[in-house]
Task: structure prediction
Amino acid sequence: MSTEPDKLESFVNRRYEHGFITDIDADSLPPGLDEGVVRAISARKNEPEFMLEWRLRAYRHWRQLEEPTWAHVHYPRIDYEAISYFSAPKSDKDRPKSLDEVDPKLLETYDKLGIPLHERARLAGVAVDAVFDSVSVATTFKEKLSEAGVIFCSFSDAVINHPDLVKKYLGSVVPQRDNFFASLNSAVFSDGSFVYIPKGVRCPMELSTYFRINAANTGQFERTLIIADEGSHVSYLEGCTAPMRDENQLHAAVVELVALKDAEIKYSTVQNWYPGDENGVGGIYNFVTKRGDCRGANSKISWTQVETGSAITWKYPSCILRGENSVGEFYSVAVANNYQQADTGTKMIHIGRNTRSTIVSKGISAGHAQNAYRGLVRIMPQAHGARNHTQCDSLLIGKACGAHTFPYIEVRNPSAKVEHEATTSKISADQLFYCRQRGISEEDAVNMIVNGFCKEVFKELPMEFAVEAQALLNVSLEGAVG
Amino acid sequence: MTSRLAIDALRDAVARLPDNRLSATRLAALDHLQGQGTPTTAHEDWKYTDLSDVIDISNQWLAHSAQERTPDVAADQINALKDRIDAYWLVIANGQVDESSVAVAQAAGISVSLLSDADVALDFDAPLANLNTALLRDGLRIHVEADAQPAKPIGILIVDDASSAVGVSQARVEIDLAERSTASLIEHHVSTGRSRHYANSIVRLVLGDHATARYVRIQERDSGHSQTGRLNVRMGRDSSFEHSAFDFGGKLIRNDLLIDLCGPGALATFTGLYIAVEGQHIDNHTRVDHRVGPAKSIQEYRGILAGATRCVWNGKAIVHAGADGTDAEQANHNLLLSEQSEIDAKPELEIYADDVKCSHGTTIGQLDESALYYLRTRGLDRRHAQQLLTQAFAQSIVDRVSIDLLQDTLREMVAVRLSKLIEGDIGL
Result:
């Protein structure tokens, strides 16, 4: 494999395709964070009093917290006073009602990203609530959804139009005091998506949101809340790309899912934010709190994620299995390359009887990257008959990368069955040789092996996402032969 | 909140220890300990094990019995223990090295000396190792010559008797096996007495190139006594370390096994069995550092938990950059037999090299109903069927003990322990 260093180099030198800045005049707050900023954000969004109070409580608590250091990642200290906590595209005041009214520059941005919003939405039957720089800009297919009684809108709209639902469920899965980044988000969250699926409704289409980070020095604090009422079903897709930046950008999102009796939520993510350049300069800091609560009996929450971007990922989509017979699933592919660092995994908290969870995590490390799986499976004393199976595999490509596993297993019920398996290896010379002698090029062979490695996760993705994810992986690992 | 160790009283106790070559080291270790503080559950490595009780015993001991003469352990008790296994026995009783046992071993040709006679530099390490150094009366140094192969195992009997007063004891052993030597080693902990007791032991084992050590640790402490123990192993080129650990007794038990694979071709195989009944807390932490490759480590721990017990198993394998050709396997299996028992398992891998093969597997469950049913259709009652299956679960660890003549003794120990467990209601 004499070509290996060259290929690796070309792979390492690959530029970030989606690196550009859209020239839109952002209406931003000056950097810094105090109560005034929290009030200003709330005022700008015309929020009711309860929302401001909620934010202020979170802010006051956040002030007392220390940034956590337990994750297996290293980065320079974040100066929270140097971040601007709000930025909205100028066209915020008169919201467009259809795509024709959307700022053409925004549409151009989506085009550059290869996301022809309207076509794609129509062809794929996907409603897109596009979040651009913290404020929802375009929402499609609203009528079709409202026919079914589904509420799918920006978080700001939900606060104003559906305050009772927001009051009831906001912070009920990820409380304001949950952790440092969740508290920060609770205080300053700019916008996000809100979904409510009424009783017995199967959402007629897959819901999707594209997140982007734009204006310089602006952190993005998304807040997503999805509620699936009794017997309902929803599949939600989230995909991300971001423009190139020299400075690190902080992203501290919170996602809360509530599944009531017999309800099912499927949450899929493809994350491809700017990972920093080949020397590890720049890139997004992705510190996300995602948690689902299987509140009712027979409910199910399934997380599927393909993580290829961000300089640092700190993310543990979790399930609280409260309802009897409820099911939690976590399928993840995490790719870390160059100087990327990922510390990601899940938590499955079994509380109800006969609760089941499955964890499949595939980590791929290349270049100088560090990729860690961190997971918790906790079986509480009352969780009779609980069942967990965890499979957690790592693939190493290159001499300088690292792959780590930190699973915590806590079992307090003797009728529980818990299994955990993990393997770490590189692409073996045997496998490559086998493919090569059948006339497959080295690069195709590597792609094939890597895709095979991730297959268990990809098959859980909705079809259009699976295609995107596979392409993304092929591009990311081109030529990186181990 | 973990209580704090009474450092001033500890300083007084250190000052009262016999003046020998260790004196200066003790004081330095105490300073280190004072700077570090004792571990609390806020420390990741101590997340599941709270040392409050141990610190409480230590403070009680410092306030009272530390000022009195250390009681002796009855000679017939020691002799009875020695007779159970045929070995060259070295005895540390209530933290005091039994010099007559050293003389006997020396006469048999074993190179053993007191730490205070040998010029061994003790390095400063984790807080409990520093506590051990600070309170160390004396320890043992065992040396096995190049190419030597002692005829019998070398046994270290660490025995404590807390019948008369609250006790705290330290044991320290430094062992080195020179090139191409082969030795069997037994570390046996026993304690008796109604008062509270805390024992803290540190063993360091250095394996020269091509050396082989077969190592068995047996812990049979009284159910009211606590112990923290640490075994550090440093392995040279093509050396082999076969370790089996058995935890039967004790109240709060914490074992740390740290293995450094420093030479290519090194092979470490380490297994363990912990059987916890009413009220016990047994914590096994293992860490294997693959510093060079190719080298191999294989680990398997099994646990049986009944009653209100808690066991912890934390296995960590670290493959350092450049340690290509590493093969590391970890396995941990647990049988939970009671509603009140808890197991916390954490199999960790940290890998900084790419040409590696690492795996771990953890299972937690209960006896297989269909296996129980099968045995019952063959005429066994439920209790016996349970006993048979539990014994089989434990047996696979006993079978891997590499000191052949120990297997029968251990099988018996396991059977006794399990029959106690099965006789009680294990709630199945």
User: Anything to note?
Assistant: The two ends of chain B are 35 Å apart (CA to CA). The longest helix of chain B spans residues 406-423. Residues 7-263 of chain B form one domain. The mean pLDDT of chain B is 92.
